[in-house]
């Protein structure tokens, strides 16, 4: 019998796919596991990067806090910032599972006004499936940085006009209250009551208001205006100056000092440079119209101010602070002066004339002289001007007021605009709302918010 050879087995291809799949399954699962381990390492890296981002910011913040506190050296501030960054990074890394932080470093540097931090890390992520390929860990690492530009140290000198024109009623309603309020006048041994007849609350005590009767205390029309509920231009300006000082001195960065200077026919400094908000508040709270002289001599004020400010620095330290002058005036200079201890009007012997001028009861009035600002700007002082526009009493045809309204306004506005350092440094305001809005803009232009860049 002839035996047949099993040739059909070699030709039978059934089950080949299953065999090939079985043979490729192991490496396929290995690569899938490798991808899973890699995806996990990417997730861990992202979490660590968020941690070092936050650590870099924390280091900068702490350094800036120490610098602003002013009680430690720059080196101590840097060391404190680095400790803060490292502690923050270590605390965050512990919360990240499946990762081992091998090394980390936080470096803080200060160059000029810029505080920077650089954070680096190196970590390992254990694998599961990748161990089939003899890969026990994936190494991950990275760096991050943060910086902040500190605002410079700045001395802000506020120069306020306290001449008698600042006693005008702040609004038309206030002017009517002051004009119609009943006041007691004294003459010889008698007295009588009648309307004030003037829209100004004068702080210089005229003889007709000096009491000759203990039953009636001596009061200026400025005091009486307040008693009757009126607000005057100086009250609005006082609030504006207070808002400016408080905004700058309450900042966390503690980079500002404020001084208050006043002028009428004379110059005075009620508040020398200070970083104390309470001290500034007390001095500004006493701001009122002059009690003697009462004219307006801005030339004297600017000359005195030049000697006080000197040459400003680059702002990197308090001793080298930059300087800003904020001028608040209605821009009108006036030779007229009065005194509480004698009747009559006199003329300012130190007045510096600047054309064009107009008559004022035998004296002269004139617009703001922009040349007064030039020496300050030449030294690098930034000059900001708020033109608290001269209020003309409603219905008053006084030749002085007519001259101001009809043509001096134009000179005042243009000359004060020429006084300032930049196009955005001139402000024109008349109503209380306008003055408040202008002071908000001035505050914003002086103080820039502390901003972190990453």
From TrEMBL:
InterPro entries reported for this sequence: Tad_N, VWF_A, vWFA_dom_sf
Domain Putative Flp pilus-assembly TadG-like N-terminal: 15-61
Superkingdom of origin: Bacteria
A Pfam cross-reference name: Tad
Residue ranges of every copy of the VWFA domain listed in the record: 224-331
Coiled coil: none
Official protein name in the record: Flp pilus assembly protein TadG
Organism from which the protein derives: Aureimonas phyllosphaerae
